[in-house]
Structures are given as C-alpha cells and as structure tokens.
Amino acid sequence: MLENITSLEIWQYEFLGNAAREWAIAFLVFVGFLIAFKLIQTLILSHLKKLSKKTKTDIDDTLIEIVGRLKPPFYSFLALYFAFSFLTVNTAVRNILDAALLIWIVLEAIQSLQLLVDYVLRKFAGGEGKESAASGIRFIAKLALWSVGLLLILSNLGVNVTSLIAGLGIGGIAVAFALQNILADLFSSFAIYFDKPFEIGDFIIVGEHMGTIKKVGIKTTRIESLQGEEIIISNRELTSARVQNFKKMEKRRITFSFGVTYEISNDKLKKIPDMVKEIIGSASQAEFNRVHFKSFDDSALSFEAVYYVTTGDYNVYMDTQQEINFKIRDEFEKENISMAYPTRTIYMQKE
Q1: Parallel, antiparallel, or unpaired for β 301-309 and 252-260?
Q2: Whole-model pTM above 0.70?
C-alpha cells in the first residue's frame, strides 16, 4: 500500500525545482525538528527547575532564564533551515539562509552572554551605591560582546575585517591618549568596585579630608564631611592615596592622660591606678588595658591610661570616655585628690 501511495503521479509534480515528494519530506523534517527542539527545551527547563529547588545558588535560575528565552521563532527557523537541506535551492537562497542563521545564532549567543554578565555583576555588587561602577563594567562588557559578534558575522559573510580591526586599533589608541585621565578614573572605579577598600556609609580619611562615603561613581566619589558639605574626589586619587577606613574598625584603642597635684600624699598616689582600673572596668563597652604613673611634669604628677572601646562607633567612644571622666572626677572628690592644672609658684626674697 505504501508503494502505491508513493507511486502516485502527484508526487512527481514539481514546484520551484523540487518534486512534491521532496517537499513532503522537507515538511516532515521541519515538523520533526520543531517537535524535537521543543521537547529538548522542555526537558532541559524541567531538569533545571528541579535542580534549582535542591541547590542554594541562583546560577541555575540564570540558566533557566537563558534556556527559556529561546522562543519558537528561533527554533522554527532552525527546523526550517534543516528542512531546506533536503531541497534543491539555488546558491542565492542558500547563502541567504546561511547568513540569516549565522546572524540569529550570534544574536542569541550575545543575549545569553549578557544575562551571564548581569548575573556576575549582581553577585559581585555586594551592597548598595555601586550601580555606577557596575553599569560601567556592564557597558564595556556588552560593547565587547557586540563588537566581537559583529566582526564574527562580517568575517563569515566574506568581509575582510583585518583592515577594519587595524583601523579600530589605531582609533582606539588615539581615543585612549585623548581620554587618559577619564579612563584612569574609570578603571580606578573598577578597582574600587572589585577590591572594596570602602563601601557606601563608611567613614574614611583621605589626606586632609574626612567624611562618610555617599556615592561611588564612574569618575568621582562623593564624601559628606562632618561639617555637612560634599567633597568630590577623583577615583584615581582615591586608589593612589592612603585611605583610613574607620567603618572597618571593630575595636578602638583609647589613650588618655590626667594629672594630680604635687601636694598629694604617696598613699593616695598609689591608690590612683586601682581606682582608675575599677572605673574603666565598670564603664559600658570598655575593656581595660593599663594605667600607669607616667611622669613628673612641671605642674602635675601625670598618669596615662589605656583601654579599648568594643565598637568603632565614634559616638559610643565619646559616651564611654565621658562616663569615665565623670567617674574619675567623682572618685577624686571623695578621696580629696586635686586635679592638676598649670601653675607657677614665685618665691620672693627680701634683701
């Protein structure tokens, strides 16, 4: 029966240089590949979704997005391309199909790689306020992808890209010389973005400037000073200067001195280190380190005390120091110990 069907005269009818039987085979190939591509996509998506539920990473979500973005028009054209391989077509049509397939595959590959670039940048962002540096990296990465894709397409279409690449290289060198300061700031922002010497909200000191980081841009970083004004510093200066970051401080070491008068008795003088040690130990968020009778100064017997504040917050440090100062003053008043201040004694001699 199959032989009778295939021997029918209708199969010998030709259209555009191909018999009806060849058109039927091409149609079956088209349908077969179309179904196969859809099944493969569905199976891959199903497997990735099951995998994403078992893993804690979000890379599988990005892979799901990449596979899911392959829409029916793409694999329909791919199936059509394979179907046309069973037909006899002229060279011009074949070249058009080859060029269209190449362009479409390159476009799909670039868009998929762009999703991976976005994923990597999201993973490395690590905090707010880095959108400027991330957008700069994203722009350069995508520009590079599209440039490589365009050169790949032109090269496969028979265009000589050697002179084009040479011209772009010479032009790039000229632009780099003209914009070297801007490019230095741009790449410095990338260094800040990846190295993370400071982040938004950190209190830093750079040279004679100090303040809180408000924004890290592509060319400059903005700092709000203690007085409230905005300080704008180039990223190149920040990466080449010594930066003190107080936000990273987990403990603050505090040293302070005080003096008592020379009229104090030795017994009371020897009690002072234990008194101060007890006062510092009772203060909130303070860890005692040492206290010593340091020196005989011009107007005072000087002591030096050292302790740690268990946070880098400056306001907490000042509150702790104030608490210690008040308690030292109270204890000295109870023990009738006089705090020293600059004095000068003059002895008058009568002749």
Answers
A1: antiparallel
A2: no
